[in-house]
Design a protein that fits this description.
Layout lengths: L4 E2 L7 E4 L19 E3 L8 E4 L2 E6 L8 E2 L4 E2 L26 E6 L5 E2 L3 E6 L5 H10 L2 H4 L7 E5 L12 H15 L3 E8 L7 H7 L8 E5 L6 H20 L4 E4 L4 E6 L10 H14 L3 E4 L9 H5 L5 H20 L10 H5 L5 H8 L8 E5 L9 E5 L5 H11 L3 E6 L12 E5 L2 H6 L6 E2 L2 H4 L4 H16 L5 H4 L17
Length: 500
């Protein structure tokens, strides 16, 4: 590894600078910020800019050796859609430094295993959100300390459920989210609160998903109970009755094959695709080697790099499903007067990312090297083991909400710029891409992937650290975001379609 420059592939015509350069320093033709790109050869106008051994954009004009490469001289162009389908993909062999493959989890009757023991208060519509929050707020840590096996009582409220079509993508996605949270392995008991006249009727949900009421699943209707106050009182009573049942569930030794980890990134910078993301990718490979499941999402943020996933698909059908999701997004953004290259964000660009291609190539490294075994719609229950993909927006709260609804019982979240994010009922592990970020936001970050740059640790070593932490957190260790109480307001179902 060069002391000043980081070149990721022999084919690259750029390098990433490991320190901010002044004009004239080490051949730089202008000031180049930390993490930004410097040209390592002459590049003619319209020629491709290569990083990760892949095209990340094209030169707007002739570029000299030592020039700063960023938005001012790199342009985005549509990517080649001639996909290379592979039925014979062979993942690289994974060498684990440990045989650790168990954790202490909560076994559910349906065979899934939870990493937390949560009572969830779900709402069918925004109109019942206040009631749900009031019920949850009653159950402070002092109120539930008599039930040591109950992690929390949490309200998951949203801003939709009415003023929407009673069929189609938006309605189906919302119902999948609510059903998915109700069935998530980390949820031991559910109270669902509705208004009564909404489009998203609770009875429809119960019928569609064959949900039975009982000691672990209760419902309330504000209009039937004659108002907010009576609903809150009745809700508190129902949760009090539920607590002893949930508390009887205790942790038992479980294999890592029961872990379903959502792979997420937010507030990325140029180092995310060099340190944190590939380290998480190695952790995902380790988990898959133990029979577990890793779930990549954020479809707009694999755009331009989807060909790397298609090459890894277990069969042609899975490849086609991923292409269908990409094409749906192209149509979706077009009819909403957007484009798929409307990315990276301002913060991403300050951190050194220039085009959606560059961002996506770094983002897909979270997926490691395992074979792609399935492609799922947003919040669709995941049934395949190994590495899979779930369609979602790049907006972190909406994406993670879908992953949890799909069955993820842990979230692993990389960040380069810094992200104050957490999730419930599935705990969120935060992974910093650089030493500086980890030191600035040490109260928020669980893992320092910056040691790859500053201490010459290998990607595999940091990946092993992440994997070990996943097992510890799955066994009950609190993450930094849990300690700070994050997760109540990060439940954001993806709203698709017109509000009427």
């Amino acid at each position: 590894m060069d002391k000043f420059f980081f070149k990721l592939s022999d084919e690259d015509n750029v390098a990433v600078v490991r320190k901010s350069l002044k004009k004239g320093e080490l051949g730089a033709l202008s000031q180049i910020p930390f993490g930004h790109k410097i040209s390592t050869s002459l590049i003619s106008k319209d020629d491709p800019i290569i990083k990760y051994g892949q095209i990340i954009g094209y030169a707007k004009y002739d570029i000299n050796l030592g020039e700063h490469l960023h938005t001012h001289n790199i342009k985005y162009m549509d990517v080649d859609k001639n996909y290379d389908f592979s039925k014979d993909y062979i993942p690289k062999k994974i060498n684990s430094y440990t045989e650790n493959s168990n954790f202490m989890g909560f076994k559910r009757l349906n065979g899934t295993v939870g990493t937390r023991n949560t009572i969830a208060i779900l709402t069918s519509v925004n109109c019942s959100a206040t009631a749900a929050r009031m019920i949850a707020e009653h159950f402070t840590s002092d109120k539930i300390k008599a039930y040591p096996n109950v992690d929390n009582v949490t309200a998951f409220v949203h801003a939709t459920g009415c003023g929407m079509a009673d069929s189609g993508d938006g309605f189906e996605a919302l119902q999948r989210v609510l059903w998915g949270y109700a069935k998530n392995p980390n949820v031991a008991g559910v109270l669902m609160v509705g208004l009564g006249c909404e489009i998203n009727q609770i009875d429809w949900l119960l019928e569609s998903y064959q949900i039975k009421k009982g000691p672990y699943f209760q419902v309330l209707n504000i209009q039937n109970l004659c108002g907010l106050r009576k609903t809150v009182e009745k809700g508190i009573e129902k949760i009090k009755n539920m607590l002893p049942y949930v508390d009887k569930i205790t942790r038992k030794l479980c294999p890592a094959s029961n872990l379903v980890v959502g792979l997420q990134c937010g507030g990325s910078d140029a180092w995310s695709g060099i340190t944190a993301n590939p380290a998480l990718g190695h952790a995902c490979d380790l988990l898959v080697s133990k029979g577990g499941t890793g779930v990549l999402s954020e479809t707009p943020e694999i755009y331009g790099a989807e060909h790397l996933l298609i090459r890894r698909a277990a069969n042609h059908k899975i490849s086609k499903k991923l292409i269908e999701r990409i094409e749906w997004w192209e149509s979706y953004t077009k009819r909403n007067f957007g484009t798929m290259d409307n990315n990276p964000s301002p913060g991403n660009k300050i951190g050194g990312l220039t085009t959606i291609l560059e961002k996506s190539l770094g983002a897909v490294s979270k997926a490691g090297t395992s074979k792609l075994n399935g492609v799922y719609k947003y919040a669709e229950i995941i049934k395949d083991k190994g590495f899979v993909f779930m369609d979602s927006p790049g907006y972190d709260p909406a994406s993670v909400t879908g992953q949890i609804a799909s069955g993820c019982n842990i979230i692993a979240f990389t960040t380069g710029r810094g992200s104050a994010f957490g999730s419930k009922p599935s705990p969120c592990i935060k992974i910093a891409s650089s030493f500086g970020l980890y030191e600035r936001m040490s109260e928020d970050m669980d893992v320092n992937a910056g040691v790859i740059l500053n201490k010459n640790h290998s990607i595999e070593e940091v990946g092993q650290t992440i994997y070990n932490l996943i097992l510890s957190v799955a066994s009950g260790e609190k993450t930094k975001s849990e300690i700070q109480g994050l997760g109540d307001y990060e439940f954001v179902p993806w709203q698709i379609g017109a509000v009427m």
